[in-house]
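It would be a great kindness if you could assist me with a short task in structural biology. The matter concerns a single protein, recorded as an amino acid sequence and a row of backbone structure tokens. Could you please explain, in whatever detail you think fit, how the structure tokens follow from the sequence? Thank you for your consideration; the sequence and its tokens are set out here:
___
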Amino acid sequence: MLDKKILLKASQCLKTMAHPARLKIADVLSRGERNVKELSELCRTPHNQICEHLKLMRHCGLVKQRKEGHFVYYSLCGDKLKALLSCVKNNF
């Protein structure tokens, strides 16, 4: 049986990822790190919306960031989202 803490964390993650734009961002990041400008272009989503989605994903521990000069690069944390994307691709 799953522990209550695990269930709460999983439900928070799934709530966060229950948005098409966040799934698209995760899909793009599964191929390597990107900055906000690149994500905005690849996802065809305004810069400010990408920033808000990334903020939520970071808060949930799904993406991480690193700064290089004037740019902030984002990448996936571990394999959680890759497994979720695989599940989505194989079942929907």
